[in-house]
Amino acid sequence: MRPDRTGPIAALLLAAGSSARMGRNKLLLRIGGESVIRRAARRALDADLEPLVVLGHDEGRVREELYGLPCRTVVNADWPLGKSASVRAGIAAVPPEAVAAVVILPDMPLVTAVMLAELAAAYRAGAAPIVASRYGEVLAPPMLYDRALFGALAAMEGDGCGKHVVHLHRRDAQILDWPREVLADLDVPTDYDRMSSQEAP
Asked: For residue 2, is it within any domain?
């Protein structure tokens, strides 16, 4: 019998880093007139997910960008330790009624609400504990994890903790394929110059 997956799905937006390579907080940069973090939160909402934004560096300014959106927030005091610390903080704050969580990197601005909705729909329609995104041969966020894997996800160390959990459960995971170009992220200033000139949708 297929498990009951009708409950809410959280969207963990990892927004605690310092954007050291960008030289300024990339989550506050604007694409199409909207900040990167607000864009990511709005797309999660448009996909009928429940955003939970993990804050850290520049907490106040990032929080201001979410004004008016129905988002939960949690502060990761250990944000200098990297993404795994933010994943742990986010997982610990997921509401008990949530059946799963999608880990989202807001600095991948080409990820759409349609993609997020398809991840959630695949999860609800199936029995896989993970629904992962693949771009060509590359596994990368957004990744959806069933609540049964929250403990394993929180126990991992290092920036690739979510991907490691996917590899451990690869035989049971469902994979959704997306175009390679969607993998583009904002890491250094030239990334932003290119992205903003393209007016990403």
From this structure: no
pLDDT interval class at 2 (50, 70, 90): low
Nearest to 7 by CA among 166, 128, 123: 123
**Which residues constitute the domain of residue 52?**
9-198
Task: Examine residue 3 and state whether it is found in any structural domain, yes or no.
Answer: no
Is 154 within the bounds of a domain? yes
* Residues sharing a CB contact under 8 Å with residue 117, sequence separation 6 or more, in sequence order: 46, 47, 48
Give me the sign of the Cα torsion angle 33, 36, 38, 42: positive
**How many separate domains does the chain show?**
1
Q: Using alpha carbons only, give the angle 92, 64, 144 rounded to the nearest 5 degrees.
A: 35
Is the pTM value of this prediction over 0.90? yes
E strand map for 90-192: 100-104, 130-135, 138-146, 174-178
